[in-house]
Amino acid sequence: MEKKEREDTISKWLKDLEELILENFQMEVDRLELILQPQVVKPLLERVAPAKPTELLREEFKPPIREYPGQVVEVVLGATRAEGGSRCRSITIGGEKTPAFYLFEGVQPHRPVIVGDVFDMEISLPKPVRESLGDVLSDPAEWARVYVEKYGVDMIDIELISTDPLLKDTPAREAAKTVEEVLQAVDVPLIVGGSGNPEKDGEVLMKAAEVAEGERVLLSSATLDLYEPIAEAAKKYGHVVLAWTSLDINQQKELDRRLFEYLPRERIVMDPTSAALGYGIEYAFTVMERMRLAALWGDEELQMPMAAATSNSWAAREAWKKAPELGPRRLRGPLWETIASLTFLLAGVDMFIMLHPAAMRTLRDVIDWLMAEGEAVKTAYEDWVSMEV
Amino acid sequence: MPKRVSPIDIFNLLPKTNCGECGEETCFAFATKLADRKVDLELCKPLFEEGFKENLEKLKALLRPAVLEIRIHSPSREVRIGGKVVMYRHELRYDNPTAIAIAVSDTMPEEEMLAKVKRAEEFKYSYIGMDLTLDMIAVRCVSGDPDRFGERVKKVAEATEMPLILCSYDPAVMESGLSALKDSRPLIYAANKGNWKEMADLALMYGCPLVVSAPGDLNLLRSLTKTLLEYGVEELVLDPGTYPDEGLKTTINNFTMLRRCACELEDELSGFPLLAAPIVAWKGEEDPTIKAWKESYLACMLILRFADIIILNSIETWSILPIVILRQNIYTDPVKPVSVEPGLRVIGNPDRNSPVLYTTNFALTYYTVMDDIRDLDCYLLVVDTEGISVESAVAGRKLTAEKVAEAIKETGIEKLVDHRKIISPGLAARISGETEELSGWEVLVGPRDSSGIKDFIKKRFYGEG
């Protein structure tokens, strides 16, 4: 056999093979020269491309379910007559065992609650808010009643800002009367807030806690600068404390640890600050999301429910500014607050302190839809591609 | 947490010639940047020459993010979607902001359609020194007529630089749309249970990425994805269906599950960008305002829940503005500092009679104020509030009269102006009296929002008008 011919023959043998096994093979030669040219090797190594599928290949999707070692504690707000207060009902928040609305992993144990934000003196509020509430802004009890009766809020936050020495410096005793009025005007659980002045808040909240004894109100708020009198007031009169920090998880943990010396975890709610959309909402979102994940992974200092004040949305100029080129203010503002509330909902917030009724309504609708019982609903999918708009 | 690819593993596959063509001095420096996902592989020119083919493939596989990055382009503009490495932004950051597409239909009167395209193209909102804009146009085939669709796609492409999404389930219509485009790589919407083979052929023939649509059925979505990959279509986008109202639960669940599978379980069949269609809010008989409202919040919820591309109908600024701002916010690098350096800033060319203002060193406050005073001549004192905004800083005692007085003293502003007047933020009105006592300066309480500063200075500082 000529050399060329031999090579060709060997190539031919190898051509259609993927593997060649030689058994009991012996070869007697003087010198063996085996040159495998690339074009010979190629068909050996390159797998034949699989035929394109002609039928659908069936695959199954398995929900990626996790288990978490930690859980958010449950906090009860408000007390009925039987429980030593005068509220129509008490409200439980928290208890989550999964990240916010990871409904494939488990149910959301309690509905996040909507709180109407009421101030004890007339403050400058944007026009869409004033218009939706009517002529009640100088009467906190009436304001609270409109929120409860007309807009169905779950709770009222009465903020005693007039006690600030730099505003009206209303005495603690007088401010406490406003709390009593609101307690009589509405029968939902309350948040009672101070002015944020550390010199005055201790006294104001202590007095308010006293007149609301047994009502299990949420005292707002304890900060790293001022937590002792507020924690004491909650302990003495049977209330719950809101622990407020400024977008800093370590500070939140620090404040929570200090409060643990006074109160059990079931009597604390956390507020890590809810910045407005366009004004740092991403910091708030991420701090909340991280806090909730940390809680689920077992960090006991962060296992309390969270609150967010979406009233802050109205600080964003896009929400209130007169700017026809941005569209009508009556839509822009409420939408701004709506989207902030939904952002925090998806981060794990349990309690929303809100101003605008339209934002409250959308948030309530979304919570209803997300928390609908049973299997996830599969509504008919609208073919948006060929839909006439 | 995401696995960080080792720069050494990357380096070993690079040409190691330190040629510098990529802009880095050494291949190792380039490898480090690749590991941090700060540069594109394409910058390494030698890698694309003969002989490195195998290494290139290995590098591509090594660097493939949990969610494949897909590029869509017109002749002049490119949009990238996907490329996500993490599920939560604090784990690293989110790359490639959710692309926003505005939909037009082929049955709209031509003028109206082109006007909408123009509005989308021109949408711009100036936000802390950036222009927020829209990204794409989705052309929907409502007519069912391939010729009409092709003609309209051509018109749209002539009217805009934005890349396109072509929307139809009919392969004949899709082919007509695809053949109407030149030098473009549109996104094909979509392959489904009935048409996947024809759509796959088109995607391969035109070299375009393909959306896989299986509304509300993740088993089908997965089956289609597997089938299309086997068929040879590598660049896929997943559409698990967008349902409003009662369907929100399904929608949020499906988006979340898919992204977790991709990022935390490294499941390849889930590792593709996700498409959301908040435009579904436009079905039914409701008032258009309510539909736009719904579409807007749905879009925001899905930006937060991992959508890489969203299709909208409304072009109204009030409904789009929160979406573009939320997207910008959420896609901000979370390690970017919250605060800026405190101290004195000189704005324009101030003289000894120019106004002096102060604000906090919270980055967002600072940039907002800077934006509002950029064409004035004045001095701005940036007070160290530990990166807290004015209102919170006053409440939390991070912005006090002592701090303002200290800033006045430390910056030496007293030597730069002859007057002794300082303009404070409106939200810091509470500390103005005390500030006057401590600093000896007169405090003019400015507007509650810095957009009113210019007017305030004109009237109250210079006493005009």
Give a short summary of the structure.
Chain A has helices at 3-15, 38-45, 127-133, 140-150, 172-185, 201-211, 228-237, 249-260, 281-296, 317-320, 329-347, 357-371; strands at residues 74-77, 91-94, 113-119, 155-159, 190-193, 218-222, 240-244, 268-271, 307-309, 351-354. Chain A is an alpha/beta fold. Chain A has one domain (75-371): Dihydropteroate synthase-like (TIM Barrel).
Please render the helix and strand layout as text.
The complex is a heterodimer of chains A (389) and B (465).
Chain A: H1 3-15, H2 38-45, E1 74-77, E2 91-94, E3 113-119, H3 127-133, H4 140-150, E4 155-159, H5 172-185, E5 190-193, H6 201-211, E6 218-222, H7 228-237, E7 240-244, H8 249-260, E8 268-271, H9 281-296, E9 307-309, H10 317-320, H11 329-347, E10 351-354, H12 357-371
Chain B: H1 7-11, H2 27-35, H3 53-63, E1 69-73, E2 78-82, E3 99-105, H4 110-122, E4 125-127, E5 130-132, E6 136-140, H5 146-159, E7 164-167, H6 171-179, E8 187-191, H7 196-206, E9 210-213, H8 218-231, E10 236-239, H9 248-264, E11 275-276, H10 288-304, E12 309-312, H11 317-330, E13 343-347, E14 356-360, H12 363-373, E15 378-383, H13 390-395, H14 401-411, E16 421-424, H15 432-439, E17 442-445, H16 453-461
Helix pairs in contact in B: 4-5, 5-6, 6-7, 10-11, 14-15
